[in-house]
């Protein structure tokens, strides 16, 4: 039986790697919003490795969503509905996300998500893999997260949050895009500081 904690990405084990990763992700995402106009960098776009592979499968842009109890998805959807101008939507999103959105790491789900084109063969390979490794390396930090990828259905609150977040930056996003959730196994994941 799956616990509600795991469904919503709330691993309550108190893992040091988990806590460190969520705090770091909040910090680097706030930097991206404040200093980089929201453009994702290596701290947000991990290298993906399939089991037994030493060559990267590629990079994906991940989304760090708030847990359902702290969700601001209605606010994202309101920003989208308020104007048809993509530049205004993007500006509002950056201001909103650069302010206090990333201030409290404890409000975030530890299930990362990513959007793929409808019918994406890459999404299918990730979903079918027994385990994948996401490697985040930036700002002298390195995290290797061993994850299971699964499709998030439209009924899942993290699916809705991911789609709303992405539409703020890409209004042409297909409604039937594939949203994958990446659930880390924190016991087998690692972190390293001082990486150059």
Sequence-ordered SSE layout with sheet pairings:
Layout: H1 4-7, H2 16-35, E1 47-49, E2 58-59, H3 73-82, H4 86-101, E3 112-116, H5 121-128, E4 132-138, E5 141-151, H6 157-169, E6 178-184, E7 190-193
Antiparallel strand pairs: 1-2, 1-4, 3-6, 4-5, 5-6, 5-7
Helix pairs in contact: 2-4, 3-4, 3-6
Helix/strand order, N-terminal first: HHEEHHEHEEHEE
**General shape:** globular
For the termini, the CA-CA separation is 42 Å
Tell me the structural class: alpha+beta
Number of helices: 6
Query: What percentage of the residues does DSSP assign to strands (E)?
Result: 15-25%
CATH topology: Pnp Oxidase, Chain A
Number of strands: 7
CATH architecture: Roll
**Low confidence ranges:** 1-5
Number of domains: 1
- Overall pLDDT score: 91
- Helicity range: 25-40%
How would you describe this structure to a colleague?
There is one protein chain. By secondary structure, this protein is an alpha+beta fold. The chain has one domain: Roll (Pnp Oxidase, Chain A), CATH 2.30.110. Helix content is 36%, strand content 20%. It has 6 helices and 7 strands; from the N terminus they run ααββααβαββαββ. Strands 1, 2, 3, 4, 5, 6 and 7 form a 7-stranded antiparallel beta sheet that branches. The protein is globular, with a radius of gyration of 16 Å. The N terminus is likely disordered.
Quick description:
This protein has 196 residues and is an alpha+beta fold.
